[in-house]
Amino acid sequence: MCAARKSKRAVSKVMQGPIGLLLGFLILLGPALNLGCGIGDALEPINNVANQIEAAIAAIDLNSAAWQEIVRDLQEQLPDVENDLKADIDEVLQRGIKATTVSVIASGDFVSRRVQEALNRLKAEITGKEPPIYPPAFLGFTPDALDVQRVLDDEVNAMTFYGYDFDRRDPTGKKMELWMLRDGAYEECSFALTMATHYEGKVNLAANGVQLSLGCTLMELRWDGEVVSTLPILQPDRPQPENITVHPRSITFRPPHTRGDKDFSGNGPFVILEARLAGADFILGGARSLQAQVWMFAEETESDWTTAVGTSDWEKIYTAPPGYRIINILTPTICEDSYEDTNHSEDLICPGTGNLVQCFRCVGDTGSDNDAGHATKVSVDFAPVVITVIKDDPYFRQ
């Protein structure tokens, strides 16, 4: 006896109406009626439909531009009882039409090939064979590379890609997946992948989507473990450091009285000075500003050793331009000097070129009896300071 294998799909598509009743009757009573392999004659309607589909596939090969007309002719040629099969062929037709009209990059040849694949699956199902597995077909990304700078500038918040059968699941039941190469390792990002239609998908790059970093170099679409397409990730140019010369403001300090009376009485004082420069308002990878501090020691040279000594608070003397951070100070950051006061006027103590300080403007003895803690002071005029700054882009501070 000949064996007749039929899938559930074949039963649903062909075993309906008068043909289906006749085939069922013959299959059940075949042994009793000694019909033998004559059952094959009863399967002729199935073979006829399969042959019609095969002819349509061959016709598309010869004239891919006419695939819509060929598929419509196939629908009309099918017996009226094959309504379910006609509906499936109409779905093939409509999927192809939508992909052609909406995706402007889909050529007629590309779509006709996908239509042939769909018809091949239908033919296998109605003949009881295992349908061939075709992966989703990919056309391209728009744009064809991911420019991270455009994402950072809020010009792009999604990548669109086109193809065919994006809604198809692989043999394990999984949909298409999105993977990204970050710091040399792949990580799955399928949560950011959405399919608007079977021919159009999007990758979400907004705040709730894929978060890009310096280590991201590639995106991949995968189906059934195989790479369908890749998308290069173009990183922005890293900001380059530059040296600039700045002119910090001056600071003034009056050291407190610490010993003796407050009058130097013409005995000096002997004065020691020290200025320091450092960064301030620190952020990751640098500082926003510069700060300075001065220490002054003024001591009477005899008598009761009247003394004024102390260190100023740190004072901000320079702030980097908006959007920049200071990453290095090239000028010396400490300057020391000393002298003995011999008059009652302001003295200019200038350490010379190449130093942090251009001049210390000092007042020691004023001739009054209220020097230490009041009249005694120093003003620091800083020399031009050379610093290294860089554009403060948070993306590069990861």
What does the model show?
27% of the residues lie in helices and 34% in strands. It has 398 residues and is an alpha+beta fold. It folds into three domains: 119 residues, no CATH class; 98 residues, Sandwich (Immunoglobulin-like); 153 residues, no CATH class. Strands 12, 13, 14, 15, 16 and 18 form a six-stranded antiparallel sheet that branches. Strands 2-9-8-4-5 form a five-stranded mixed sheet. Strand 4 and strand 5 form a beta hairpin. Helix 4 runs antiparallel to helix 7 and helix 5 packs antiparallel against helix 6.
Helices and strands in order:
Elements: H1 8-13, H2 17-33, H3 39-42, H4 44-62, H5 67-77, H6 83-102, H7 108-126, E1 137-142, E2 146-147, H8 148-152, E3 158-164, E4 177-182, E5 185-188, E6 193-197, E7 200-204, E8 216-223, E9 226-234, E10 242-246, E11 251-253, E12 257-259, E13 270-283, E14 286-299, E15 307-311, E16 315-319, E17 324-329, E18 334-340, E19 347-349, E20 357-363, H9 371-375, E21 377-382, E22 385-391
Helix pairs in contact: 4-5, 4-7, 5-6, 6-7
